Description:
With 150 residues, the protein is mainly alpha-helical. The protein has one domain. Helix content is 76%, strand content 0%. The chain is built from seven helices and no strands. The longest helix has 25 residues, at 16-40.
Amino acid sequence: MEKLIQGITKIFGNFKELFLLVLRLTLAYGFFEPAIKKINHFERIITWFRDGLHLPMPELMAFLATTSEALGVVLLVLGLGTRFIAFPLMVVMLVAIFLVHGTQVFAAKDGGFEIALYYFVMLGVLLSQGAGRYSLDETFLKKYFGSRTK
């Protein structure tokens, strides 16, 4: 029985790298449209952050959110600086959960925080696990440090 469990674990463990790639690409796709909207309507984002969300320093906050999302799309696709970009994107998701969607309604169809929570959890996986084998992070770590991401 122990050998069976070890065999199953090994088989499904091989999918880890593929799923980390799919996770990164899914998140990049999810952040793409919001990033483009923020870039194209930056002044409106500042106004919304100031008047709608009542954030301090709305210009800076809009810049940080926009930069995090836009840079996040590129870095997640490449698997470069994955842990580095996961953290600020998690902060953006926390703002979305607590200030944009509120915590009273969960379902996305009702304007709730469901999607932001899913993204937060997925980013947490990348923060803790790294980008995986199919990434530039992996390539650079192997080349310069002789080790894989762990």
